[in-house]
Amino acid sequence: MRNADVTPAKAGVQGISLRLRHWMPAFAGMTLVACAGGQAFPDEHVGAGAPDAPDPAEAADAQDRMAYDIAESLVAEVGPRFAGTEGDRKAVEWALQKLNVLGFENVRAEPVTVPRWQRGTIKVELTAPAARTLDAVALGGSVATPLEGIEAVIVPVATVEALEQVPAAKVKGKIVFFTRRLERTRDGADYGKAVPIRTKGASAAARKGAKAVLIRSVGTDAGNGPHTGMVRYEDGVAKIPAAALATKDADVLEQALAGGKAVRARIVITSRDAGMAQSANVIGEMPGTTDEIVLLGAHLDSWDMTPGANDDAAGVGIVIAAAHRLSGSKPRRTVRVVLFANEEFGLSGAKAYVQAHAAELPRHAVALEADSGSGAVWRLSGGLAAADWPWAQALAAQLKLEVKANDQDGHADLTELRKHGVPEIIPTHDAGAYFDVHHTRDDTVDKLDREGLKQASETFAALALAAAQRLESFGRAPVLPEKRR
After folding, report:
1. Measuring CA to CA, how many Å separate 172 from each of 99, 162, 176?
2. CATH number assigned to the domain comprising residue 131
3. Most buried of the four, 31, 79, 171, 425, by CB within 10 Å?
4. d(CA 270, CA 289)
5. Are residues 237 and 362 in the same domain?
6. Structure confidence by residue, pLDDT tens digits, 142-163
């Protein structure tokens, strides 16, 4: 099939030609042809004697599959990789090996100290007006109940704001049940509105004297199992146990409450704080000709109860495959892949990266992160200096992406960099199905979107290349308030 050379001058890319296969209006077929030494998975060609020259079509197909293959490899060879666990250690070893095999330079693991929390066991059962066991999971960081558990009447409220209007006398000694439902949207925007019941609900309930908290899982599925996620306890407020119900069992509880009789539940959680442990950020680079850096980030960890295929093996595959598309091209700015440790349970890797690289933060030209699953990229937002936003808008038009705004806060691991003025380009993935499996045991390889991963890695590659080749310097980004997840 005939290839065409296109130079996207309007996007600010100077002197780099993109070869396009299978040109489509949605930009789905953009690939960057690797130079010598940059073919996909070079270890596949090791054998006796001189290897045959790689077939261009096979190399292109391997590159197109790379994001999926990497994500599948991480899930199959490592599995769950919660901070401080054996799976976490194996993930670091896996990442170092993968980056080396793919020809990245300056590959290293930078130490990160992480908190260690052990989930233990959980049992949630209705005891009145009828007995029934509910499918539940402890929220990450939850304190344990007494050995005999906690049994109390359930008080339903929709949100943290709604709870603030309830008199403390109606909450004291009871179990608060947050009922707020997550709405399915293409950009996943409702997550930020719904997630406070998980992050803030326990402390809000404890201030009014509640004994424990249950929440409807922050998910869009119809009952694929409960969704975990971090609970944030406020300093100076009593810590009470917190758990999430599978959406189908949240429906069961709501129906029981609608019956007009008092509903009681018993909760037993045996989780515990196990101190601190060691992990690492894993870094690899495609070096440029100047000392400036374009950072591509994703987080390497997952929750303990999930294989983490979409969250965030998909992101790991996207950023590695995107950077690999630049193999041998020697862009002006170095493209650095950072696989962050412990995003899920406290952003330890993001914080450690900023500390370790404080001196070179002014040389971080721009950063991008992949942490929204395996769906295709359809929109571009920014956390850029105002003067650089027209450049990003032109680039989005070149890539056939919609544009939102330049006042967005992006993904969690980049919030620490934004505090130091590092600009952010924010690709929005199709998240329509993402929160069906987010933080659940069902986030498995079969839930990955192969075509979405291919398109996302192509788009990230084009964005990274445009940023790496831009002749103009990037201004510093406006600092936004800390993002709460």
Report:
1. 54, 16, 9
2. 3.50.30.30
3. 425
4. 54
5. no
6. 999 999 999 999 999 999 999 9
